[in-house]
Hints:
Blueprint (H helix, E strand, L loop, with lengths): L27 E2 L12 H14 L1 H4 E3 L4 H16 L5 E2 L3 E3 L5 E3 L5 H6 L5 E8 L2 E8 L8 H4 L4 H4 L8 H13 L6 E4 L2 E3 L24 E11 L6 E11 L5 H9 L3
Antiparallel strand pairs: 1-8, 2-7, 3-4, 4-5, 6-7, 6-11, 8-10, 9-10, 10-11
Amino acid sequence: MTADPILQDRLPHLAWLDPRTARLPGVQPVTGDDWLRVDEAYGGQMRERDRLIADHEPAVHGMTDAARAAADELYDRVLDKLRQTLGFLVGQAAVQRPDGVSVALNRAAPLRTLGRLVQEDLCLMQQIGDQHVLTGAILCFPASWTLAQKLGRPLSEIHRPVADYTDDIAQRVQRMFTAIRPEQPLWRMNYLTYADPTLHQPRLEQDRRPRPVADLRLFVRSERQCFVRLPHTGAVLFSIHTYVVRASALPPDALTALRDAGL
């Protein structure tokens, strides 16, 4: 377990208590342009992202040739958004982050560069044949999956180990990806209890996440996932903003509901 865990104070949405988001896929429209966020854990999460990208880049960064144009479009899209985001100073050669760190801009490594600017992990999904395929990502905070095992695979194969991801859900999710409009991003949140608050938790498909002891559900990990259509390449950005909070920070009824669900 991390000696000094990187935690948020609260979850922005208790997805398991909201009938709209409690069941798969639980997707809702994004309000306004709210698909990237800066929260109270920004400094800690970005220090960890910097470390992972510097020391373990092959594990957290990957891109196929098919993703190049989409990655370039995403690079421009994110920088445009950061120019309008409080706390960022976007220059010609570098961006100063809200935590004061200056990050050199490198268009030749678009996903790697963006991974040092925003809290979100950024995954590019592109339609190849009749399915959307993961073609590129900066994935610093995987929750029990690995980029190397998923890169280049379609949605149906990526979610194969997920017990609740039935054929019906798979078809609905693929239809959703096909229907996403550039002007209307979507979001959803997942949720699990963890004994270990570590943000970087890669696992192979055959490996299982250690389950917390029933009376020691110490942390809740929740991902706010957004789906954004890039208008020029048609790729879909699948972004993941990871929240980890102490279970004790939840309202008692929320924690009881998680226990009742067996999580």
